Amino acid sequence: MLLGNRVAESLCRIRQPYHVYLSIDGGNEQAHDSNRGKDSFRRAVRGGHCLLRHRGESAWPHVSLYQLDLGVDEATYDAEFLNLAAQCDVWQRVTPIVANGSDPTYNDSLDPTLHWQADARGPQPNGACFWAGYSLSVSPTGDVSPCILTQIANPEALLGNLRNDSMDAIIGRASAFRERLEIDGRQSFSLCASCFKVSGKPRPPRAPIDLRDQLTPDKIAN
């Protein structure tokens, strides 16, 4: 499990405001593992609990449960998942992103598990998107990428590994990645060449709908 005691302790030693998003799909083991790999659901939930335990009463990191909506019936949500949701600062459910990075209007008639494959092309931006170099995606094995779409499927996206590299080194590589992208454009990286994600710097986050308000004691595991 990546988010064990050592990594959780190091994250909680950072004395400045920052956010950690726990990305979990569907709400139960079957849905998540079918998308992320066998046994990844339990490891993700345990890791989230570990991080919150080490954070204690501290305000940082701010921890959000970021659930991808795969159309799973809420009645089948896992009890440990709901328990984690109750302890996080925010629980939000979002529509999966389409594969080419564009932001289409969600189509209710589309199978949620296929939504990310939808083709919603438009004029392609050339500059760096607001993720590149600012938002880091971490795989269950600790590999770090500047892109949550391709992650480490493309060697260009590998910035390092949390187990082996310092955060200073990883952040330095992320900054260099963005700088090259801003100067040379998306065609300079094959993983960005066909992406339609909007360009620009990070935007103030939209206030999420906090699903914790829907939790009742009978839904939460003790």
TrEMBL record:
What keyword terms does UniProt attach to this protein?
Plasmid
CDD domains per the UniProt record, alphabetical: SPASM
Q: Does the keyword Secreted apply?
A: no
A Pfam family this protein belongs to?
SPASM
Which segments carry the region annotation Disordered? 201-222
The answer on whether this UniProt entry bears the keyword Membrane reads no
Q: Where is the composition biased (Basic and acidic residues)?
A: 209-222
Q: Give the organism the record lists.
A: Sphingopyxis fribergensis
| Name this polypeptide is given | 4Fe4S-binding SPASM domain-containing protein
Q: Where is the 4Fe4S-binding SPASM domain?
A: 129-195
InterPro entries listed in its UniProt record: 4Fe4S-binding_SPASM_dom (IPR023885), Aldolase_TIM (IPR013785), rSAM_sf (IPR058240)
Q: Signal sequence span per UniProt?
A: none
